[in-house]
Amino acid sequence: MREVYFIKQNKEKWLGIEQVIQGKVKKNPDDLSSLYINLINDLSFAQTYYPKSNTTVYLNHLSSQIFQKIYKTKRVEQNRILYFFKTEVPLLVYQYRRYLTYAFLFFTLFTLIGVLSAIYDKEFTNIILGENYVNETIENIKKGNAVGVYQSGSTWGSTIGIIFNNIGVGAKLYIYGIAGGVGTLYALLSNSVMLGSFQYFFYDYGALKDSARGIWLHGVFEIFAMIIEAMCGLILGASILFPKTFSRFNSFKNGFKDSFKIFLSTIPFTICAGIIEGYVTRHALKMPLILNLIIIFGTLAIIGFYYIIYPAIVNKKTNNPINDAVL
């Protein structure tokens, strides 16, 4: 069958499914399942005869959207918040997993830029971190207390300030994505260059090991969440730049809805990072090294599993045939 005839034959049905996805037409769960099965048949046909066509891309995305619609209309026996974190977010992360890869690659590149800049320009660290902070930290290093800056202020006061600051940074990484993703990349560049120069600064003064014992206690959750927030900003930007077969406004609505849910999932990790930084990091050099390592690698295992491994498990468990986001 020629593709033009295939589109003409099914166009009205697909447009009707779009109306259902957008909430303009209501369907019960049985009707939704029937639509989904019908659409999957069309998708299989298109993948077989028009594998590189925009029609296949469109049907793939439409199938993904109605699959999520079915899941939302099913009666959820468990707590809604638990369902959100246990099923909804992992499915979205899996769907948009390519953007996690992009965010991680940009983060790595920008961090290396920070390291190289600090290596070749000794004043760079002063510019990025501030001269007062650098001088104070140098004095702390000479006293054998590389993480002394984390010991100032009260525990609860520091924790609250850190949490709100980190949530603000994450919000910028996400919201700036509305500028086609460029704003997100700029915010990621600023934070990653700071991290790279920050770490080299401690290396240059022979205190990298001691600093790592403290910084990465909270840094694993904080930095990993930052990468996920950048991922959300890139999804938002891509929804505007690459609407595919949807109108730009509808593409933006879908991109915002999905990316915002992923962004919300980072908040608990950001809060935990703030609590660790406020209450635990100040004791980093007094703790047994084994305890530092347990916390650092334990937090890495938790957040790495949730955003990298668990989404694939949930996708397989739910028998979702959609493999990639098409933005």
From TrEMBL:
Pfam families in alphabetical order: SpoIIM (PF01944)
Transmembrane segments: 99-120, 173-203, 215-242, 262-280, 289-309
Keyword presence, Cell cycle: no
Superkingdom per UniProt: Bacteria
Key words, A-Z: Membrane, Transmembrane, Transmembrane helix
PANTHER family: SLR1478 PROTEIN
Protein name according to UniProt: Uncharacterized membrane protein SpoIIM, required for sporulation
